[in-house]
Amino acid sequence: MNALDRFSLKNKVIVLTGGTGLYGRGLTADLASAGAKLVIASRNAEACQRVAEEECRAGNDVNAETYDQGEESSIARLRESVLSRFGRIDGLVNNSVAITMTSPMGSLAEWEASMRVNATGLMLMHRIFGEAFCRQNQGSIVNIASIHGMGGPTLSLYAGTQKPIPQPDYFFHKGGMLNLTRYYAALFGKSGVRVNCLSPGGFMNQDTEPFLGRYFEKTFLGRLGNKTDLGGPVIFFLSDAAAYLTGVNLPVDGGYTAH
Q: Concatenated DSSP letters for 56-71?
């Protein structure tokens, strides 16, 4: 195997949660084009099926599944469905997120709904899929966190704009994701299972001035991420090229957190 072959995902069975949204759609395209047998899963069955059909028409191997990360039994069914179809799972990308809080003073019910999916559900994804990986003595888990998990909010970016400030539940679970990555990297390491994390910065969306100008000033590359900027690092962590990397958090933020 030459050096470039080690970066290939050819014939690797990869599960990507949340494969239709801001990060997910670009990840679906990139992982599929890297040769993966890709399974995308979310609560939105219609959106997953539409994306899977688009990718299959482009010649890629993408399958749609429906699951609810807030339900333990649903996560277990997703794992068993993939194992039944392919016989193994080589990688898991935890990209799903539930946005429930709309204000720092949001209700306790909103907070608890967020924790059920984004904290408890994330733990269960590691536990349930990790069991299969450890039985295989191989596998790679990649968590999609955020620069909001690496530090406090820069509220000055939002002053005088219509853009809402990030909510406390998002900071809580993205920060927790970093240490959960390290925990499961330690727990699964002796079984040959790797667990790593990526922390994206601002990505292409509908933001306008003055937010963008302020954000660009704080970002070394002076721009937002685009739909292909996250795929390369995810492919790397899933691939054999990263065989000796685990417990890592990699900012994918154009230099925003490097100050």
A: HHTT-EEEEEE--TT-
Q: List the end-to-end C-alpha distance of the chain, in Å, as a whole number.
A: 39
- The domains of the chain are located at 4-250
227, 171 Cβ separation under 8 angstroms: no
Cα(115)–Cα(70) distance, integer angstroms: 9
Query: CB–CB of 195/180 below 8 Å?
Result: no
Long-range CB pairs of 202-209, under 8 A, 24+ apart, other chains included? 202/253, 202/256, 203/22, 203/23, 203/227, 203/229, 203/230, 204/22, 205/22, 207/163, 208/161
In DSSP notation, 15-42 reads EEESTTSTTHHHHHHHHHHTT-EEEEEE
What tokens appear for 80 in the block? 């068993």
DSSP letter assigned to residue 157: G
* Pair 121, 52: CB distance under 8 Å: no
Q: Which amino acid is at 6?
A: R
Is 35 exposed, middle or buried, given 0-12, 13-18 or 19+ CB atoms closer than 10 A?
Answer: middle
pLDDT digits (tens, 9 = 90+) for 147-198: 999 999 999 999 988 888 999 999 999 999 999 999 999 999 999 999 999 9
- CATH fold, domain 4-250, is Rossmann fold (3.40.50)
The separation between CA 152 and the C-alpha centre of its own chain, rounded to angstroms, equals: 21
Give the number of other Cβ atoms within 10 Å of residue 108's Cβ.
7
Sorting pLDDT into bands at 50, 70 and 90, what band is 253?
Answer: very high
pLDDT of residue 209: 78
CA distances from 174 to 22, 108, 218 (A): 17, 19, 21
How high does pLDDT run on average in the chain?
95
